[in-house]
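User: My advisor, Dr. K., asked me to get a structural model of this assembly before our group meeting. I'm new to this, so sorry if the format is off. These are the inputs:
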Amino acid sequence: MPRSELRARDSLERHAGLRVDGARLLRCLDELAAIGSDPAGGITRLGLSPQEHAARTYLRDLCAAAGLEAETDPAGNLLVRRPGTPRRAVPVLLVGSHVDTVVQGGRLDGAYGVVAAIEVLRVLHEHDVDLPVEMVAVAFANEEGALIQTPFWGSHALCGSLEDGLAAKDRAGRPVSAYLAQTGGDPDRLAEAAWPPGSVAAFLELHIEQGPTLERLGVPIGVVDGIVGRTILDIEVVGEAQHAGTTPMRDRRDALVAAAEIILAVQRVAAEQGVCATATTGYVEAHPNVTNTITGHVRLTAEVRDTDPDRIARGEAAVRAECAQVAAASGCAVEVEIGMRSRPVSTAGPLRDVIREAAETLDLPHLTMPSGAGHDAQIVARVAPIGMIFVPSKQGVSHAPGEDTAPGDLVHGTNVLLHAVLGAQTAVGLHGDHVGDV
Ligand code: GLV
Ligand code: MN
Ligand code: MN
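Assistant: The format is fine. Below is the predicted structure of the whole assembly, which you can bring to the meeting.
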């Protein structure tokens, strides 16, 4: 057995009784939840906004006070290391998630995985645990893409897969460079955020499930086997703005009515035709948005998801066909552009085993399950093996103010993460084993 593996096995045995500080974890989650708290409900801490920056600053200060080294990279990712951890010279075990939210989102989506990763790093530091493969905690910037329309921004930047990054902008056309410069990043050095190939030995992400399965079955730990892929279509409908009282019904080109037909068709693609797992319109913007004027112009989105890339492609084609049909019937012009494509991925078998063993060490039942939500892990899967741990979401609520998880489950999940980090030491060097795209 190689010496590093012996070291890792020894460390695993010696630290079997190690546990995270649950009260500290929950306190940190509460403090983080105050940043970006939205008077209208939930948390609005959009990627690369001042609120996300404030969240990263809060975590950076907390890490510094705990004796850890925290820095923000040019893409706005927060990276946290134990003192003395080599920078980029040797592969590390990367662990984390994101701290940005959707508009009026919840307190745990992403934030939980980051706070838990920092808690694990603190415990390893306090107990001076010897890790052959050092752990680095990460808060990826702008996972949601709610403000700057590039979801997975930070993980793409770190993995070197950010294409034409500086072309990213918000819906009003303000470029990402303006946001980056004000939120701790550096648009002039964006390319330096990319880690050299081979720098990530493996990636672990702990996350709330965001769906109802674990709670319904009464199982505290999910072992994720695959993550859905997604295509976002940006749709523009152009009709004619006209007087709502004087324009005869037959003479109208009402862009909002055409958009409504598209929205219903998008829903049918998944719900009735079963072309792909889900299909959703979540964004609609109507102009001039006036009670007594026929709508002249609508921008909306459709997103389709599935674990099978062919079904995603068929979902996209079906939405495009529906848009063409609505255009022909309504007389409105309908343009469709691709906003983003993410690929479905599998997690790595050896890391799934490591997570199961960690749960068993802690006497926690576990369930192997897919993720219907997207995660930074699926971007990191392009460069390294990934593992994902889920904990139950109360009533399956997520991307909404009511998002919650029982405190005990949050602590259980973080202990599983701690033991998965220890267990992964014997499994890293997994590069050749990594499953990647399905
Ligand atoms: C990520 O939050 C997603 O939309 O799945
Ligand atoms: Mn989310
Ligand atoms: Mn998330």
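One thing worth pointing out at the meeting: The two ends are 32 Å apart (CA to CA).

User: Perfect, thanks a lot.
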